[in-house]
Amino acid sequence: MMPVKIMPCLDVKNGRVVKGIHFVDLVDAGDPVGNAFFYQQEGADELAMLDIAATLENRKTRVEWVRKVASVLHIPLTVGGGISELEDIDLLLEAGASNVSMNSAAVKRPALVTEAAKKFGSPCITVAIDARRNQGMPSGFELVISGGTQPVGKDAVDWAKQCETQGAGIILPTSMDGDGTKAGYDLEFTRAIADAVSLPVIASGGAGKLQDFLEAVTQGRASILLAASVFHFRLLSIRQVKEFLWDNGIDVVLDTEKME
Fold first, then answer.
1. Does residue 24 surpass a pLDDT of 60?
2. The CATH fold of domain 5-259
3. CA dist list (Å): 203 to 68, 207, 231
4. Which backbone phi and psi does 84 adopt, to 5 degrees?
């Protein structure tokens, strides 16, 4: 078993980090570059940066934002938002991203996942899966796209299985019902995805207290723990989270110099 990783997430809009609840009611959470450097110093294992308005505004991820953030990092950076063709991935990897996350475009054209995996390697390709509860779906979770604004009528867990078959290397499921609420990860959704695929699964959406991170591993079976609000608003530090996981028997990478 690989150590569990902590991944702060920078949702970026108009050049600023923002955070909302259920994908709306956004508030400012600072500068992307400053936040990225801070989290790296705090002991983050990886960082995610999502250009949350790219798809809705029908544009690509702003490469200059990626380049600036990547310039202060030596940890892996996953970038998402507006990725719809191989050229987009090429530009982002050249700008310093180590991994790209695709969502709406992959749903609209699943072959994009396969093409990207073949050209850049599966470990570089994350598929983000946004879902909301819908008892009409076999798993109880319906796939949504376009920043959570458009239900697809497709089962989210079935889509995760298809993404693995298409060549994805990582799955990033986010429950719209839990996003930004700090009420805990949607463990049912995370576990459903983790049980359905053999890929690393990133728990996302709703972390609010230390116990949430532990349960994401022990109950949700996630191997990477993404969070935003609790870190942006300094409710918890990465060090606190890692020490809590370690004390509860979860293997994490501790930077002993920074922990002293």
1. no
2. TIM Barrel (3.20.20)
3. 26, 9, 15
4. -135, -5
CB 175 within 8 A of CB 199: no
- Say whether 11 is catalytic: yes
CA angle 155–187–76, rounded 5-degree value: 90
Name the maximum alpha-carbon separation found in the chain: 51
Catalytic residue among 45, 51, 88, 130: 130
Residue-wise pLDDT tens digits, 56-110: 555 455 788 899 999 999 999 999 988 889 999 999 999 999 999 999 899 999 9
User: For residue 52, what are its two tokens?
Assistant: 């949350």
Q: Strand, helix or coil at 21? A: strand
Q: Is 130 a catalytic residue?
A: yes
The beta strands (E) that lie in 65-220 are given as: 77-80, 99-102, 125-133, 141-145, 150-155, 170-175, 202-203
Structure tokens at 30: 């600072």
**Pick from 184, 168, 213: which is nearest to 6 by CA?**
213
Q: For the whole model, what pTM was predicted? A: 0.89
CB 177 within 8 A of CB 188: no
Percent of the chain residues topping a pLDDT of 70:
85
- pLDDT band at 201; cut points 50, 70, 90: very high
Q: Collapsing DSSP states into helix, strand and coil, what is residue 124?
A: helix
pLDDT > 60? residue 209: yes
Q: How many CB atoms lie within 10 A of CB 4?
A: 23
